[in-house]
Amino acid sequence: MENVILGHHETMDTHEVLNFKTICLMRSKLMQGLCFDNDLKALMEKDVQQSIKDINELLALYPKTTTH
Fold first, then answer.
1. Does the residue 2 lie in any domain?
2. Is the pTM for the entire model greater than 0.90?
3. Radius of gyration from C-alpha coordinates of the chain
């Protein structure tokens, strides 16, 4: 992926979406342990896998920073 420089508003929007996807991931993962329906568990696992993929794509938009 090319080096993309995001504007301030784009950075904030990306951050909000990243937070939302992270919360969705945590909720689906937690609910899998409480669910007894195998079809619903499979659907939640599919959501978990898609959320992980989405989060990784969003993280790729952030520039790499170095610490001193």
1. no
2. no
3. 15
Placement of tokens 């920073």 in the chain: 65
When divided into structural domains, the chain yields a total of: 1
* Tens of pLDDT, residue by residue, the chain (68 residues): 566 677 888 888 888 999 999 999 999 999 998 989 999 999 999 999 999 999 999 888 776 644 44
Structure tokens at 58: 């969003």
User: Quick one: pLDDT at residue 9?
Assistant: 85
DSSP state letter for 6: P
| DSSP structural state of residue 7 | P
Structural domain of 35? 8-59
Report which DSSP code applies to 60.
T
Percentages (nearest 5) of helix, strand, coil residues in the chain? 70, 0, 30
Report CA 36 to chain centroid distance, whole Å: 25
First CA to last CA distance, the chain: 26
